Amino acid sequence: MDLKLKQCFIAVDDHDKALAFYRDVLGMEVRNDVGFENMRWVTVGSPLQPDVEIVLEPPGASPDASPADREAMARLLAKGMLRGVIFTTTDCEALCERVQDAGYDLLQEPTDQPYGVRDCAFRDPAGNMLRFIQRND
Predict the structure, then answer these.
(1) pTM of the entire predicted model
(2) Of the candidates 38, 65, 43, 62, the residue with the CA atom closest to the CA atom of residue 54
(3) Could you give the CA distance from residue 113 to residue 106 in angstroms, rounded to a whole number?
(4) For the chain: N or C, fewer Cβ within 10 A?
(5) Would you say the C-alpha torsion 54, 63, 15, 68 has a positive or negative sign?
(6) Considering only CA atoms, which of 102, 95, 103, 77 is closest in space to residue 131?
(7) Of 88, 83, 80, 102, which is closest to residue 132 (Cα–Cα)?
(8) Measured distance CA(137)–CA(132) in Å, rounded
(9) Residue-level pLDDT, tens digit, the chain, 137 residues
(10) 53 with 43: CB under 8 angstroms?
(11) Are 54 and 45 in contact (CB under 8 A)?
């Protein structure tokens, strides 16, 4: 069976701030920007991975989510309790410097990990934790 990742989802509370980070700081391309019933979904992706997309969606965007569920998701997002994604890079220090220079919250300086990577971590504008790893080859 052939199986590949196509999309993953990250909850954001402000699409314009998210775009300033994912597009302008990280260099991702915008692949789709859709509004529907007072909601907005923006799809971004790395030019190096045309088959993989990150959907930036409102917290609790599922049509089955109750108003209470949406409110709970928004509270968790505001606390930074929702998970983000892990990216790879060929230069962890340069990426860390670029994100810091843009004014985003550093959670972890570039650090050599015992499992064979050097990584750093940031919060995106919505509070999601993102890790950036560089393989130690």
Answers:
(1) 0.89
(2) 43
(3) 17
(4) N
(5) negative
(6) 95
(7) 88
(8) 16
(9) 888 889 999 999 999 999 999 999 999 999 999 988 778 889 999 999 999 999 999 887 777 888 898 889 888 888 888 878 999 999 999 999 999 999 998 999 999 999 999 999 999 999 999 999 999 87
(10) yes
(11) yes
- Encoding tokens for residue 5? 């990742």
134: which 2 tokens?
């560089």
